[in-house]
Amino acid sequence: MTIAKLLKSYRLAAGKTQKAWIGDIVSPSFYSKIEKNTTRISASDLIEILNYNHVNLADFFSQVTNQEKNGSLTVKELNDRIISAYYHNNLSQLKKIKHESASTLLVKQEKIALILDACIALISGSDTQFTEEEKIASKSLFFSTENFDQNSLVIFCNFMYFYDFDSNLVITKKIIKQFQNSSNIEIQYLLLAILSNMITMCIENHVYHQAKELLIMAQKIPTQPETCFLRIAILILENLINYHDDPQQIFLDNCQKEIEQLSILGMTESSRDWQKFVAQYHD
Q1: In angstroms, how far is CA 107 from the centroid of its own chain?
Q2: Helix 165-179 crosses helix 185-204 at what angle (to 10 degrees)?
Q3: Which pLDDT score, from 0 to 100, does residue 45 have?
Q4: Which part of the chain has CATH 1.10.260.40?
């Protein structure tokens, strides 16, 4: 079912007029066009209307079809293209995908637009291209997701920079709960990446009790050759946490050994970043 039909269906089920349904979020004339499917609603306005009417976001979006009759690409195909372009640092390709997706009839176009804007902002090195409204809307989509897939994990791992500490923590715990027993190596890699990011944020915010809880989660994930770099990162964080609890030089020495391992593996830039991080947060 389309977003337009779903909105109308939910509104009628609630026994509300269009004006009562939207409050002051959008104008009545604009909303009337949305239900007639003659104009599109932004992701942020859609989520605000659903929250205003206490509609479960996961239930709502689960009823939205992935592709309308005349759509040429599925949501998954677009997601795959976006992730490929992002990991190849291809800004021009991302802009091309954004232009192409804007002309399709995909009902999840709003979500795709959010993902594209965030990817473009990350590659451009400026989050000014990703507005506060878009950050809130994209974060709400993660909050409403009941079952994450691999693409969602990739996106969240890279978008954590845009969100506040508490939101990242809630979403991280949801993800770990879903995938904690996964034997998929790619999933395990992503879980460690997310946990590494989150533990780093805990240390930056001096929330060490939470860092320890997340560290235990990371230690339960099996070690694989593919996760070598992330295991080193986790060990650095573990020793930094230990030093906070018991300031013995051996823990800082252990950090230095792991940082040197990164340099030996050819990850000189990452090695320098960790060196700065340990120097800043070992006090």
Answers
A1: 20
A2: 150
A3: 80
A4: 3-62
